[in-house]
Amino acid sequence: MAELIKRCIRILYISRKPTPEEFEKVAKVTSLGMAIFGIIGFIISFLFGLVR
């Protein structure tokens, strides 16, 4: 357990805050992925609704 805590503290020390550009890229990619999964889910739901 102590080893896990040491590793977690080490990660916190070497991590850094993202730049605004990095944050913007991550936000765009994440929102695009959510939109794609939402559209796929909507299409599947729509197709199953037609089958009934």
SSE topology string: HH
Uncertain regions spanning at least 5 consecutive residues: none
Mean pLDDT, all residues? 95
Outline the biggest β-sheet.
Answer: none
Tally of separate helices: 2
Q: Write down the oligomeric state.
A: single chain
Rounded to an integer in angstroms, the radius of gyration calculated over CA atoms is 20 Å
Return the structural class.
mainly alpha
Beta-strand residue fraction: under 5%
Distance between the termini: 54 Å
Principal-axis shape: elongated
User: Which percent range fits the helix content?
Assistant: over 70%
Tally of strands: 0
Could you walk me through the main structural features you see in this protein, from its secondary elements to its overall organization?
The protein is built from 2 helices and no strands. It is mostly helical and 52 residues long. The longest helix has 32 residues, at 20-51. 87% of the residues lie in helices and 0% in strands. The relative contact order is 0.07. The protein has helices at residues 2-14, 20-51. The model has no long low-confidence stretch (mean pLDDT 95). It is elongated. It has a domain at 22-52.
Search tags:
single chain, 52 residues, mainly alpha, 87% helix, 0% strand, elongated
